[in-house]
Amino acid sequence: MMEDRKLEGYTGNLNKNCVTIAEALKPAGYATAMFGMWNLGRGRDGPETATGQGFDRYISTKTLGFDKDAYRDGDRYLTDAFTDEMIEFIDASKDQPFFIYFAPHATHHPYDPKPELLERYRSKPKDGPMSAEYAATIEALDTNLGRLMDELERRGIADDTLFIFTADNGGMDTDEMFRRACSVTGEWSFLEPASCL
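Structure (tokenized):
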């Protein structure tokens, strides 16, 4: 969310006086990286960017060579490419503690899933508002989160790793979901699911 919604304390960008978790972890010796959507400020450098907010490394779709709103680039799939980069970052961190913030595009429209996953979900009966495109995209994300967990296990650091999973929206953007979210919060937002492993 980049636009100024005239809300007290929020002008569309992250307040420069805010201390991010990446900034808080740096003095403790953590390597920090952000992968995906940084919607808290614009620009290539400066205090409103991910690297200006404590991240040693920021990998975006553009960094990976993907077009805006593109999930595929030839044979490469965006979520797979982000996961490859995160695994490389973990490798480069060696014995140093690390913090990764991954904000995937996978839960955001427009969906462009892997054709083989899409075909699997198109052949299933539709259950509720979830489209085959959305279901296939979420499966690809889930598979890649599994790849990350497997890498942590392989390195013997899974038990020493806090893995927090949350989403900034909560699912499909249907009128029914908007009505439910607004009736609970009184504003245009979704209830945000989260889990810690």
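Residues 180-193 have pLDDT under 50 and may be disordered. The first strand starts at residue 31 and ends at 36.
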